[in-house]
Amino acid sequence: MTHLHEVRLFLREMNPIAADLTVEATGSLSAEEPTAATLWAEAFEVGTDGSQPDFPLAVSERGVWNFSTGETPVARLALRIGTPFLSNPENHPRYSVRVSVERTGTRQYGEIQFRFDAAGKIVVTEALKPSSPPPPAAKANLPSVLVVGDSTAFSNGRNQRGWGDAFRGFFDTTTVNILNHARPGRSTRSFRNEGLWDRARAQLKVGDWVLLQFGHNDADTLNEGRCRGVLPGLGDETQRVTLPGGCVETVHTFGWYLRQFIAEAKAMGATPVLLSPTPRNLWREGRLVRQQNDYGRWSRATAERFGAVFIDVAEIIADRYDALGEEKVQALFCDAADDVHTSRAGAQLSAECVARGLQQFAGRPMQRFLKPLPARSPA
User: Among candidates 31, 202, 249, 1, which has minimal Cα distance to 101?
Assistant: First the structure.
């Protein structure tokens, strides 16, 4: 039997948007077993409540761990981390590295958790401990619905939940896989640059659906902070920027990034669905403010021009908020100072609104996967 004794983390290189980590593992195995095993590591974000998403931020290549040589096995992880040590120390994100060892058809898992301090150095917050197996993979014989977006679709922050967290409850999961690939803080640009889209796209197959919702983070700076901003509009304009660390990147428009998602999803035989961003908790004269930004309008125009489905989630949710009233809607957000991130109850309502939007497309294949939606409760 294999035993992981220690996992150590080494920071090879770091700048405000990326960390290059080396993961070293030491262990042993019983004498009667083969002397080699396969080793790899995966990195996850850890929420303030200790929860982790199903899908990793970064995955190392698989290597052979040969016990007979006495060498320490090494795995390398390239992790895009988004200036974690420049923010308020109370909000420093934590990360988990899960080390997997596979030998003769059996697997064992160990986990170590860490964060970065104000100087950008690794601080281990939980030492190595045995880890549970990862969640079961999607059932290969079933179609899948993938959710791709930002923290409004997935969040594990304090009192925050995204609609993608509650989305599975509106489907018959014996007939379809619901896979939430959304990640907090991402834009169309950073979701692609960090490799998150590549990992989501690798799961797509003919007959799948991918729901794409961005816009809350795309108006950020181009080459400062998290370096996630995009150019406004739908055209082919570009701008070359120099990132921290010296790399040069060509930044495109919001519409350009959406077009890439659409084309690549279609190339896999999947149906792309563009959603307008969830609305902020902004009111005027007793009614939720519509047209809070241009990203919903740009999403609609891109979907119509390039053959994707469009669902105006912002309008569906806004109608529900108006029916409830400003006072009741406040409880659907994580706190009074945050007009973007929903609470558990808010995530449930938003997920229902997305499901209702999908239900509008009568005759489309996804109809048979949705459960009957609950009757709308009165305000």
Answer: 1
Q: Where are the domains of the chain?
A: 2-130, 144-369
Between 75-79, 233-237, 249-253, the lowest mean confidence (pLDDT) is in: 75-79
Query: How many Å apart are CA 183 and CA 350, to the nearest integer?
Result: 17
Per-residue pLDDT at 85: 45
pLDDT in tens, 163-202: 999 999 999 999 999 999 999 889 999 999 988 999 999 9
Tell me how crowded residue 66 is: count the other CB atoms within 10 A of its CB.
Answer: 14
CB atoms within 10 A of CB 35: 12
Residue 355 amino acid letter = A
The architecture (CATH level 2) of 2-130 comes to Sandwich (2.60)
Query: Edge to edge, what strands does the sheet with 18-29 contain?
Result: 2-15, 18-29, 74-80
The CATH H-level superfamily of 144-369 is SGNH hydrolase (3.40.50.1110)
Helix H, strand E, coil C: the string for 171-240 is: ECCCCCEEEECCCCCCCHHHHHHCCHHHHHHCCCCCCCEEEEECCCCCCCCCCCCCCCCCECCCCCCCEE
> 84 falls in which pLDDT band (50, 70, 90)?
very low
CA dist 258 and 189 (Å) reads 9
Taking the C-alpha atoms of residue 110 and residue 126, their distance in angstroms, rounded to an integer, is 11
* 2-130 and 144-369: identical CATH topology: no
Confidence of residue 343 (pLDDT cuts 50, 70, 90): very high
CA–CA dist 99, 7 (Å, integer): 8
Nearest to 162 by CA among 227, 216, 225, 82: 216
Q: What is the pLDDT of residues 113-155, one digit of tens each?
A: 998 887 778 889 999 999 888 877 788 899 999 999 999 999 8
